[in-house]
Structures are given as structure tokens and as C-alpha cells.
Write a structure and sequence with these properties.
The protein is α/β, with parallel strands linked by helices. The strands form four sheets. It has a three-stranded parallel sheet with strand order 2-3-4, covered by helices on one side. Strands 1-9 form a two-stranded parallel sheet. It contains seven helices and nine strands.
Length: about 190
């Protein structure tokens, strides 16, 4: 189904990597602020094409997980959130930290897996993928579902629609921290 939606890709670029020194696994505070920003912007849906942690990091600093979990819980019922979950080389589902799944909702999980053609390009999208052990919903299928759309798997028509907008994660967080709702509402 075609949608008349503006899609914005918020990416982790060199600027973000330079600014936030912790390993990505420990970006709980930044992802929490990002989720808060997307809630403030009344995003139609937020898809995270990066697998969040599979365990707690409370042992580093008490309360470390709390802001991330609170931000995810706060979005629930306001801004649909779809989180990525992946599989290991054997096709078994790799777990996510259970409270993340609990707060986001089990129905908010999709796999970001795609099937490239022989030349390495992705030309088809699927509502689900079979890992050899289990059939799982895709991130794209779950995003469509959260938007109330029927996902039609098949060929991707790259000629349809306008180019995607791209904004750095660090830019979005700057806008949020500065209270710049004009820019934030464009994400």
C-alpha cells in the first residue's frame, strides 16, 4: 500500500559518534531523549532499525536503564514504537532486555532482516521472514501495521515518492534540548 507520509531517517552519523563517546550499547540516555523528542513531536510512528540491549546495565550505574525504560513506557499509547530484534547465525531469536519488550509491547517487535538479490541489492520487502527455525514479522511490516496500513509484500518501486529526509541523531537531540519545536515537528 502506498502511503502519503513524510519519512525522516534519523541516523547515527560521525557527528553523533564523535559527540557521544560511550559504545552504542550504552546510549540509553541518548535513546531515551530521542524517544522523548519523538513523543514531543507527535511522530506518527517510530521505527528503530538498531537492536537495543539484551541485558541490564544497572551494574554500571544504578538507575542507568530507568530513563530509557520510562521513555519507552511514556510513548506507549501516544506514539507507536517498533523495535528491532534479530537472530543469531543459527536462526534463533536473540533476546532483548525483557523490560524493554514489556514496556514497548511484544507486538512492537520486528526483525530488520532483508533478503538481498544475487547482486546484493534489496528489491523485495516481506511482511515476515523465515529464519529456518521460526517465522518472524519484519520491521517494515510492523511499521505498516502500526500505521493502520495493510502491508503488501513484493517488489520495491524506488521511483515512487520523494527522497527521504535525513537528520543526525545529535541534531534531533539538540533541537529537543533547546525546545526547538518548529524543527522537531519536522522529524
Amino acid at each position: 500500500t502506498q502511503a502519503n507520509l513524510d519519512v525522516v531517517v534519523v541516523g547515527i552519523d560521525e557527528t553523533s559518534l564523535d559527540r557521544y563517546k560511550e559504545p552504542l550499547t550504552l546510549w540509553h540516555p541518548y535513546f531515551a531523549r530521542f524517544f522523548n523528542a519523538m513523543e514531543a513531536a507527535s511522530a506518527r510512528v517510530v521505527g528503530v532499525d538498531m537492536v537495543l540491549p539484551d541485558k541490564s546495565y544497572e551494574f554500571l550505574t544504578p538507575g542507568y536503564d530507568l530513563k530509557l525504560l520510562q521513555a519507552i513506557r511514556s510513548m506507549r499509547g501516544k506514539v507507536p514504537l517498533v523495535l528491532a530484534q534479530t537472530v543469531d547465525n543459527a536462526g534463533s531469536v536473540r533476546p532483548l532486555f525483557a523490560p524493554i519488550v514489556s514496556f514497548a509491547g511484544r507486538d512492537s517487535i520486528g526483525v530488520p532482516l532483508v533478503k538481498p538479490e544475487a547482486d546484493g541489492l534489496v528489491r523485495r520487502m516481506y511482511a515476515s521472514v523465515n529464519t529456518g527455525k521460526v517465522k518472524l514479522p519484519t520491521l517494515a511490516g510492523k511499521l505498516a501495521e502500526q500505521l493502520g496500513m495493510t502491508f503488501q509484500q513484493g517488489w520495491i518501486d524506488y521511483a515512487v515518492g520523494k527522497p527521504l529526509d535525513y537528520i543526525s541523531l545529535s541534531t534531533v537531540l539538540d533541537w529537543y534540548e533547546q525546545g526547538d519545536t518548529d524543527h522537531l515537528n519536522q522529524t
